Amino acid sequence: MRQSPYLPNRPLKVAVLGSSGAVGSELLKILEQRDFPISELVLLSSERSEGKKIIWKDEELVTKKTTKEEFKNLDLVLASAGGSISKKWLSTIIDQNALLIDNSSAFRLDKNVPLIVPEVNGSEVLNHDGVIANPNCTTILLTLVLAPLNKLSTIQRVIVSTYQSVSGAGQLAMEELKLLTEQYLQGNPQKSEVLPYSLAFNLFLHNSPMLSNNYCEEEMKMVNETRKILNIADLKLSATCVRVPVLRAHSESINIEFADEVEPKDALEELKKSPGIEVIEDYKNNRFPMPNDVMGRDNVAVGRLRTDISQSHGLELWLCGDQIRKGAALNAVQIAELLIPKK
Question: Where are the domains of the chain?
Fold first, then answer.
């Protein structure tokens, strides 16, 4: 364990690893918007993106190729460059007595690495040894809702279907969706080069690697990460993940079975007072959360809470959340904020 789990009580030297990607770019926006205490900001990238100029707080910064030299005297590294990159540089970061908050799946299920959603298990953030894992985007949105509802009655089983935006596949996939949609409307549909199939007026089951149990990697991330975050090792959870033609907001249809009956009105009241959640629910006008409600915003929108007519003690609901913000970059910065000593 580091001498102190907290970050130094001063403006910090911070590096964003993967600074030119979709999540990296959002990290820079959020650090500025939330006035995170920074003395120096270092933008690290691949050799391909080296030299890119980025304006941050009215200052022109230039992305640098990631080398050992660039990690000197850092306090904090916010990484969103993929698991192999995070693993490659972990020992270098630790040697500098810096903290790594990692957005890849590299360390999420490591029993010695905290997996944190601040509103859910923020108290565990101090149990780190130099690295903290940021959960998968769909898991963050899901646990943000499950945790408060678990206070009403113990959750026994969860069935979730996701409708995942193209932003989860990166900036190139977002740009390609725009291009392929335009080509489709012009009567000239083209094949995707970034994703396995075109998302123009289409959707497909998530393209992460298929596992031996016939669930894909993305679906099992939700299962295993949710169990760890909620500290329910035997939670029954099944997920079906789908990629849809939405730019940057994920949606989830969630069916929850409780130990006891939970009234929708009680669940609604619990969610209304939970941090990071807003309720959009108007049955009269059939108005519930949509991706457009949350794109570029911090809160996760929840609605259409109803009793499951197929079973006792069941509840169904719908949510939408910005994949790049709360599903990735915002959650990482919020983790770092928990480690800033209180004045």
Answer: 12-135+328-338, 139-323
Side chain identity at 29, as an amino acid letter?
K
Helix (H, G, I), strand (E, B) or coil at 250: strand
* CATH 3.40.50.720 corresponds to the domain 12-135+328-338: yes
Q: Which CATH class is domain 139-323?
A: alpha beta
Is 49 one of the annotated binding-site residues?
yes
Residue in the structure block whose two tokens are 């409708």:
163
Please choose, from the candidates 251, 323, 324, the residue with its C-alpha nearest in 3D space to the C-alpha of residue 288.
Answer: 251
> Is 313 part of the annotated catalytic residue set?
no
- pLDDT tens digits, the chain, 343 residues: what are they? 456 899 999 999 999 999 988 999 999 999 999 999 999 999 998 888 888 999 999 999 999 999 999 999 999 999 999 999 999 999 999 999 999 999 999 999 999 999 999 999 999 999 999 999 999 999 999 999 999 999 999 999 999 999 999 999 999 999 999 999 999 999 999 999 999 999 999 999 999 999 999 999 999 999 999 999 999 999 999 999 999 999 999 999 999 999 999 999 999 999 999 999 999 999 999 999 999 999 999 999 999 999 999 999 999 999 999 999 999 999 999 999 999 998 6
Binding residue per annotation — 23? yes
The angle formed by the CA atoms of residues 310, 313 and 316, to the nearest 5 degrees, is 65
Phi-psi region of 282 (alpha: psi -120 to 50; beta: other; left: phi over 0): beta
Could you tell me if 186 and 179 are in contact, meaning their C-beta atoms sit under 8 angstroms apart?
no
Backbone angles phi, psi at 12, to 5 degrees: -105, 150
- Rounded Cα distance between 58 and 13, Å, is 18
- Catalytic pick from 128, 216, 241, 250? 250
Phi-psi region of 88 (alpha: psi -120 to 50; beta: other; left: phi over 0): alpha
Point out the catalytic residue in the list 137, 216, 241, 320.
137
- Greatest CA separation found in the chain? 63
